[in-house]
Amino acid sequence: MAAIPEKPALEGLESKWGTAWEEQGTYLFDRDAAKAVGRAGVYSVDTPPPTASGSLHIGHVFSYTHTDVKARFERMRGKTVFYPIGWDDNGLPTERRVQNYYGVRCDPSLAYDADFVPPFNGDAKSLKAADQVPVSRRNFIELCERLTVEDEKTFEELWRDLGLSVDWTQTYRTISEETIRTSQLAFLRSADRGEAYRALAPTLWDIDFRSAIAQAELEDREQQAQYHRLAFGKTDGSGDIEIMTTRPELLAACVALVAHPEDERYKAYFGKTVTTPVFGVEVPVLAHPLAQQDKGSGIAMVCTFGDVTDMIWWRELDLPIRTIIGLDGRVVADAPEAITSEEGKAAYAELVGLTVFSAKKKMVELLEAAGGLLEVGKPFMHPVKFFEKGDRPLEIVSTKQWYLTNGARDEKLKERLLELGRQIEWHPEFMRVRYENWVNGLSGDWLVSRQRFFGVAIPVWYRLDENGEQGEVIYADVAQLPVDPSTDVPTGFTAEQRGVPGGFVGETDVLDTWATSSLTPQIVGGWQRDEELWNLVAPFDVRPQGQDIIRTWLFSTLLRSALEDDRTPWAHASISGFIVDPDRKKMSKSKGNVVTPADILAQHGSDAVRYWAASSRLGTDAAFDPQNPTQIKIGRRLAIKLLNAAKFVLSFPVPEGAEITDPLDLSMLAGLDRVVADATTALEAYDHARALELSESFFWTFCDDYLELVKERAYDQENPGQASAALALRTALETLTRLFAPVLSFASEEVWSWFQEGSVHTAAWPTPSGIEGDLAVLTAASEALIGIRRAKTEAKASQKTPVAVASITAPAATAAALRRVSGDLKAVGRIAELEITDGEEFAVTRIDLAETEAPA
Hints:
With 856 residues, this protein is of the alpha/beta class.
């Protein structure tokens, strides 16, 4: 046991106990113990892997603390805790960070340079894309690896400072060899079952990242637009049909006009055709219920593709594809085959190579010259689809991509996913609705291929026919995994056959980062790698995460578990709320109101920050003001009080053979029993805030009232009740230290070391002692103490002033309780004579101060 310092302080506890926990292996997963107790004795956590290319902010501290509190509680309850952590280090954000950090960009056509040195080693954000140094794919990936490893070290240091009780030997990276094998294996198994497939389809495309974007990665942003009223000529010569569009630049891609089936204005034209202005292409007029009668002229121009609705119309009305926007966001050179007139071809030639913005301007000029533009409306704001990490609106292009079935087009799978969602215990329960809304709102299968470089390679090649055209898909053998098709060779071929007719070509796309992150239970749990471990930890007990990625991480993980094992990946889902600024706006990097946690932790201490986080219930947003972090200050005060109260309590010797017999001591411990029971119930239900509230409330009563009431008795070695008071104080301190341990992890460990062996975090969680005591005794004594202090204050006397006579009236039951603790009341109030009588209400009716002041 450690010596109690002269002046206990929070400073330095993070370093002291962080080192001790590491050396002692306090939080290591004990597999032998897990095998001894079986799956029922294990508590496993599917911990979120933070994006290594980003920066941790106060929201991470908030949500990860919630998980840690629960994990610490389960560990103290005797569970063998499996609490790993990983880093999400592949994908688009990492690539962008590498570009901005080193001043490079990937050019796969370049050869590898073993001696390459990046031009920058820090902030290259101000560098224009054209000025970034092109490097080979392998060089680029090496830089990604280098930077993510450094970023992860910074993250780990902060998590250790916060006191996360993760097992640091159970870490993973979403780009490690082991992870790549798991991700590729899951893909191959899905392909074998027909769940993963390749198809040519319209694809949401980010022209800056040059990559396809999945539905889950979209966000709407308000953008300015203008309606352009165009005249489509009726092919029967009877006049024009007017349409209104915000995207006149896509006129060459027009494949139909669509109106609502019940729109009387256009019913007569359904099945007939009209001619596009400028290009003279004949397109049909069709009916579809998604057309909005009250929007614009009530009839829409369908282009391939202007927005998501165009994609639906194209699919459901079986329309052709006329692509004019290329992967670089510019108008492609080849005009659609439907443009046959010389005038139309000449007009199209003026658009070739232009960006979408420039093409719009040029198209307006062409329409005006041809008399097809009737009006340009006033600017207005409307929602436009963006990649959540992108800077420009998405375009829709037609490409061959890999998809994973997700229930959007399979009602049986969708119903199974909804059923599995109902089997999970959600904390809070209302978050399940967000999951169900997402499943019910899916509009297409999950696009899992990405046209990027730093990611898990899709493990396939394509056979080349005698003309060098791609044909049959060649899937990797499981024994080959992990593979990189750009360098590895499929079974049955030689390296010399790469890229030649009759040979093969490797897939260059990588898997969407969520296609790997959706497998975190499998990655950390040893799926298809360590069967013993997998059976000990899976299905996991809990998935903790933010509410904003229910649609991505939670859904995709549940989907993969359903496809692979037809079960939920975890029993519980704990969903944290957002952090909002003082104006109640969600904190985010895009808004510029994010607070980084390092300075907050250094200034106030980790226990204070953990207290702030644990004070908020799951699913509830928490306000944070870095200029006045009130809750953090309260938490710091609580942690300091725990240290000082413990030092004071431990100053009272406990005689050998001591027993708790005094009514006040029994009352206090009976009240503590109730707190233990209620706090345990709350933590079992993932309500850490309620457990903390109960423990904290009792602790302040313990310090402000009980400790004050019994300290004189505890000091007095001659008092027959000294042993009872000292033992009760020690017993309460031991229990309170364990109650606070999941939240005030450092201060609790420090206190525990002063009078107990081992770590409080591996000590048993407290259980009600069964002590029989009258709860009313402490309540009455506390009320009397407050009344006596108030009376002295009103008399403008010091609390140390002796009292000759004090009289208290109280209801009969309260008066009876007070008589049982009169000795402690007289001692704390320095009262010579205490009169307690029955009355209707509690009141200090008389207080006669002594003539001389008592010594300090």
